[in-house]
Design brief:
It is built from 5 helices and 15 strands. The protein has 239 residues and is of the alpha+beta class. It is globular and about 60 Å long.
Length: 239
């Protein structure tokens, strides 16, 4: 039976430092969270625990499921409704996403059954699982190493919440994306990201309360010709 234990910072670091070098690297998950996470988790968070450069101030919890340590981060200034979970890749799971089954032990304030991001350390990308965003676009959440890999994840996610739209598609091309704002007859370059979802998210936020139209497009139209037109916080047209 799997066991979940919460750890203090020093205890966590002592265990991690003593791990054999054969332990695989961290796997990353992203989940939506409810504000009650601060009362739901049985230990108090550590704020800004390291000297690293974070996107914003971070609140961090430490824990362990069986013999695998994990970290929960909430970047509460920039992304208060999301958390990132890091846990070593499993050596026993057939597919990388199946660590998600262990993370179902986390408290309900962490929506571990509705992941918005799952990393895979395999260099092989065959099929991608997409999740429908309410703002009018699909976000890639997992790159499967086979059709079966991706299909089994979708079946699990749909069994947890049938109201969320998931689909399968081709892996995203490795290209940069830009956010352009139309101001009168001018085109103003607002942002550039390597991730399409990040560019779309920023474009949607910039368009809130603005009378101007925005477009997000690839810098390599020969590899991805899609253009996402945005107004009032959402995609209005895909060309």
């Amino acid at each position: 039976m799997r066991r979940l234990n919460w750890l203090g910072r020093e205890a966590f670091l002592a265990i991690v430092d003593s791990r054999p070098r054969t332990v695989r690297e961290w796997q990353y998950f992203a989940f939506e969270v409810y504000e009650v996470i601060y009362s739901d988790l049985p230990t108090f968070y550590t704020e800004n625990p390291d000297d690293e450069s974070f996107p914003s101030s971070v609140r961090r919890w430490y824990g362990q499921i069986d013999d695998r340590q994990f970290v929960i981060d909430v970047y509460y200034d920039a992304f208060p409704n999301l958390c990132q979970v890091r846990i070593p890749y499993s050596d026993v799971c057939e597919y990388a996403w199946q660590t998600l089954l262990d993370l179902q032990l986390l408290p309900c304030s962490i929506q571990a059954s509705q992941s918005v991001g799952i990393s895979n350390d395999s260099g092989l990308r065959i099929r991608t699982v997409f999740r429908r965003d309410d703002r009018g676009f699909d976000s890639p959440i997992y790159n499967g190493t086979s059709e079966t890999d991706a299909q089994t994840l979708i079946r699990f996610l749909r069994s947890q919440n049938s109201a969320i739209g998931y689909s399968l598609g081709e892996p995203e091309p490795d290209v940069n994306w830009v956010v352009i704002e139309f101001v009168g007859h001018s085109r103003i370059h607002r942002a550039r990201y390597h991730c399409r979802t990040s560019a779309l998210g920023v474009g949607c936020e910039m368009s809130r309360g603005s009378e101007n139209e925005f477009v997000v497009h690839s810098e390599s139209p020969d590899r991805d010709p899609r253009r996402f037109w945005i107004r009032n916080g959402g995609v209005t047209k895909l060309a």
